[in-house]
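quick one: coenzyme A bound model?
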Amino acid sequence: MKRLYIQEVATRDGFQNEARFIDTADKIAMVDALSQCGYAKIEVTSFTSPKAIPVLRDAEQVMHGIQRHPGVEYTVLVPNVRGAERALACAIDEANLVMSVSESHNRSNLRMTREQSFAQLKEVVQVVGQGPVAINVSLSTVFGCPMQGDIANDEVLRWVGRFAELGVRGVTLCDTTGMAFPSQVRALSAQVRERFAHLQTTLHFHNTRGMALANALAAIEAGIDRFDASLGGLGGCPYAPGASGNVCTEDLVHMLQLMGYDTGIDLDRVLAAAGRLPHLIGHDVPSQILKAGRRLDLHPVPARVMEMQQQESPLKEITS
Ligand code: COA
Ligand code: ZN
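yep, here:
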């Protein structure tokens, strides 16, 4: 059975997009519940400017409050040196650096040019790289930018290459606004796998145009085994027009388990955690499995149908 690694991002990518502040204790309780679900990694929070992302202004308290579960890596988003210093004071396992391969999106999201971002992140790598903390780089809009359109694969590979040269452990190819489609995903994933086989490569899909599950399967065909996903399908970038939720964890895991993949995930526990979301955030979530149930969560046959069946074939009923 092929092993796949699922990384939960709801408490970062999901919560950063919520208008209402979620209580720190509730965030901690949610991360603690997620820690019991079998994830490879949990992206707990974000050490960005509290002015830019006010709902995650309690990053330190959350990191100090959670209970670490053996086998789970706890990662956090880090946009600059200031964020790295704050994060390193909280015993993180991994720093997830972020920049966009699109100049317009980078300026909109991080308020600087790509070169300025790279220079800052290079400094972050120097600071973080001195200790035991792993470094991942999430590259936004690799499958298309909502302002600039398509980004050439060579341009994406160039940015992956620049970070590989800095010695990072992994890269995440992010479809920030759901512009990816399966054949494109398969081609770019294969190129990244071929050129950067030593990098831990994650795919990060948003379901903005309903293609996230199909894209995940295309990535698996190209040899990718690591995916970000978000409980309830929460998520979105506040600085990307039209962004909406990530691929939903329970929908993704449900499909992959049916297909025989070993995701390491306890789907019952994930569903229990997802069921708490609407109360926590104050609105419904896009999850399909939460609404419809798993494929074989059967419903009782209505009494009148049972009666009809018994009237129509009493003999069959007796002999079977
Ligand atoms: N943590 C806390 N405070 C930070 C910070 C960080 N990582 N980075 C900057 N700040 C503070 C500065 O101290 C400064 O505070 P002051 O106004 O009280 O002096 C203020 O933010 C502005 O700092 P500056 O260096 O000018 O940064 P900026 O305003 O250009 O913002 C980012 C740059 C990247 C920090 C900011 O745009 C940001 O956090 N964006 C959010 C990106 C994001 O998470 N997007 C969604 C996920 S992809
Ligand atoms: Zn995202």
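The CA atoms of residues 13 and 177 lie 12 Å apart.
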